[in-house]
Amino acid sequence: MKNSIIFIIVLILAGSAGFTAQRLMMNSDRQNLPIQLPEETASVIGQRRPDFELNDIEGNPRNINEWNNKVILVNFWATWCPPCKKEIPAFMELQEQYADQGFQIIGIAIDNLDDVKDYVDTMGINYPVMAAELTAMEIARLYGNRINALPFSAFVDRNGIITHIKPGELSKEATEKLIQSLL
């Protein structure tokens, strides 16, 4: 019971941080350009991406190394996060459009497996999705999400280097510009 209460509090705080970060970053969205965070979070820019292995929603182990030599968008999200759900249809379109050129989206849900499975099935998400709850939050921090924002995205080039991070919702146009610059 105590762990459940702690988990719920963490989820509420993460959602609040994500909402606040998104509101603070609205000016960058108006310019349609992703932003970098201040020094303490931007320190991951130019660094090798952290390795991780998680089970996908079907229970299969997936390792980030499966997508070596590809441009990767690692997107941290949750089913209870409206901005997260808003950007997913654009991500699905971009995955389909750029997959043949070596682009891969990896969705990591900070959520419970059953809710994620239901959402993925309903939406027909066309990229790998993992649900990892607290472990996903730890991985998000390794990718530069020091403020626990949701959604949170990290772009990784073909050499495995983190090139951009973005707390809050990404527009399709901004995402596509970044993809094109890395392909």
Gist?
By secondary structure, the chain is an alpha/beta fold.
Structure description:
- With 183 residues, this protein is of the alpha/beta class.
- The protein has one domain: Glutaredoxin (3-Layer(aba) Sandwich), CATH 3.40.30.
- Helix content is 44%, strand content 19%.
- The chain has helices at 2-24, 26-30, 39-42, 82-98, 113-123, 133-142, 172-182; strands spanning 53-55, 61-63, 71-77, 103-109, 129-131, 152-156, 162-167.
- Strand 1 and strand 2 form a beta hairpin.
- Helix 4 (82-98) packs across helix 7.
- It is globular, with a radius of gyration of 15 Å.
- Mean pLDDT is 85; it is low at 19-41.
Labels describing this entry:
183 residues, alpha/beta, Glutaredoxin, five-stranded mixed β-sheet, 19% strand
How does the major sheet shape up?
Answer: 5 strands, mixed
Strand order of the largest sheet: 5-4-3-6-7
Span from first to last CA? 47 Å
CATH homologous superfamily descriptor: Glutaredoxin
CATH topology: Glutaredoxin
Q: Provide the succession of SSEs.
A: HHHEEEHEHEHEEH
**Fraction of residues in β-strands:** 15-25%
Q: What is the level 1 CATH name?
A: Alpha Beta
Q: Roughly what is the average pLDDT, rounded to an integer?
A: 85
The total beta strand count reads: 7
The computed structural class is alpha/beta
Number of helices: 7
What spatial form do the alpha-carbon principal axes imply? globular
What's the structural domain tally?
1
Describe the secondary-structure layout:
Layout: H1 2-24, H2 26-30, H3 39-42, E1 53-55, E2 61-63, E3 71-77, H4 82-98, E4 103-109, H5 113-123, E5 129-131, H6 133-142, E6 152-156, E7 162-167, H7 172-182
Parallel strand pairs: 3-4, 4-5
Antiparallel strand pairs: 1-2, 3-6, 6-7
